[in-house]
Amino acid sequence: MTNKMKRTVFVLLSTSLLLASSALATEEDKIVGLWSTPEEDCKIEIIKSGGKYFGRIAWLKEALYPADDEGGMASRPVVDRENPNPNLRSRSLIGLQLMEGFIYAGKNVWEKGTIYNPDNGKTYRCKMTLSAPDRLEVRGFIGVPLLGATSVWRREAEGRDYSGYRRSGAGVN
Q1: Under CATH, what is the fold of the domain 32-168?
Q2: pLDDT in tens, 69-104
Q3: DSSP code of 92?
C-alpha cells in the first residue's frame, strides 16, 4: 500500500469515527434545553455537565408568594420551605437544581438520576424517556419504576429568553 493510499484510508477512518461520535453526542444530548411542566407553571432547564445531565428551575409562573400566604411570606420570592433540612429552606426555587446525575442509557432513555420535589421536600429516583422530539416523560419513583408517577414535559420553543425571569424572580410571560 502506498503512502498516499494509507493517508486516504486514515482520513476516511478518522472522518467516520468523528461522524459516529458526533451522532452519539447528538443522540444523547437531545434532552438538553428548556422544558415546560404539564401545568405550564414551571420551566426546567436541562444541561449536560461532566457526562451527566442535570435540571434546574429556570422560571416559575408564580415566583412570589400570594398575599394570603399562610406561611407569612406574602409577596416574597418562593423558597424551598418544604425541604427537610432547615438550613436549605430559605433558598430560592428559581435556579434550584432539582434533577441530577442522569446518564444516557440508549434508545432515548436517561436513567440513574434523581428528582427533588420542592412541593413535599422529597427526592425520588428518576428515569426520563424522550418519546418525541418535544415530549419528555419524566418518571419519579421509589425503589422500582413500577412504584411511581410519570409527568410529561413539553419542550419550549427555541429562542425564547427566560433569563430575565430568573434574575428578577418575575413570573409573568
Answers
A1: Lipocalin (2.40.128)
A2: 999 999 999 999 999 999 999 999 999 999 999 999
A3: B
Domain spans in the chain, listed from the N-terminal domain onward:
1-31, 32-168
Amino acid (one-letter) located at 35: W
* Contact indicator for 99, 54 with CB cutoff of 8 Å: yes
For residues 50 and 127, give the distance between their C-alpha atoms in angstroms, rounded to a whole number.
19
Among 4-18, 63-77, 104-118, 125-139, the least confident range: 4-18
CB-count exposure of residue 52 (10 Å: 0-12, 13-18, 19+): middle
Yes or no: say if 110 and 104 are a contact pair by the CB < 8 Å rule: yes
- Spatial separation of the C-alpha atoms in residues 60 and 55, rounded to whole Å: 14
C-alpha cell at 101: 446525575
What is the value of pTM for the model shown? Answer: 0.78
Structure-block grid coordinates of residue 109: 432513555
Helices and strands (H and E) in the chain: how many: 2, 8
Q: From the centroid of its chain, how far is CA 97?
A: 9
Nearest Cα residue to 134 out of 45, 31, 59, 56: 31
